[in-house]
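Escalated from tier 1: magnesium ion holo job.
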Amino acid sequence: MTLQPPSLKTIPQHVALIMDGNGRWAEANGKSRIEGHREGAQSVRAVLRAAANLGVKVVTVYAFSTENWKRPPSEIEGLMKLFIESLNTYEEELHNSQIRLRIMGQIERLPAPVRKRIEKAMRQTEHYSAHTLVIALSYGARTEITHATQQIAQAVANGTLQPSDISEEHITNNLYLPDIPDPELMIRTSGELRLSNFMLWQLSYAEIVVTDTLWPDFREPQFYEALKEFNHRKRRFGALDSTKGSS
Ligand code: IPE
Ligand code: IPE
Ligand code: MG
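Tier 2 regenerated the structure:
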């Protein structure tokens, strides 16, 4: 039985997710951490399906942070293997749903087989334009902003840009994926109330939904609930509520 998506007034173009809680799910279910991550991969599939049903154009998932390199080598190795395994198993679904895969992060830090597998999947899906899955892999927002700053400083050093001409657009244009619009909604699973170095620039005005659900338990119904919650938010962007008049 397929679950009907709710009818919603506003559908965000871009939803970003901090997929947290795989380890806690594993512990609660008497499984290894890597089994928790594997079950979490199923949630990515479910969320992609739900997002496509609703008409969300871009889904970004935080899969591995720059800080996650501090984890034990065995867990890092298990995760790297899982990235390849997941692409082998699910790449077909990207084609079926015409989803373009993009990566943001320090892809050069990834082991060569992982990088090659990802690059192949990116090449093979690059002609799709209806939906995009962005995987934040070896991603850290501070590294991203530092990298953007270096590029802008280089333009200043070359004499092609004046410091006083540096605008917000210059910064946006030098981030990893400048053509992707900012997320309107950011969902974090497992209850932690922090950003953990995720998309600090792009999330400036995103609505944030934090759920206690652990990532492997986060499926279509939970995604729809988060979208409903988003629809209850009043987005003012610093201005006054339009219903209150302007005098
Ligand atoms: C999120 O789950 C996945 C990654 C960070 C790779 P965790 O592994 O952080 O799970 P918890 O937070 O230990 O439960
Ligand atoms: C954030 O989760 C990173 C990812 C989901 C990939 P973490 O589990 O690494 O974050 P902290 O350590 O709780 O901040
Ligand atoms: Mg965690």
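The chain has a mean pLDDT of 96.
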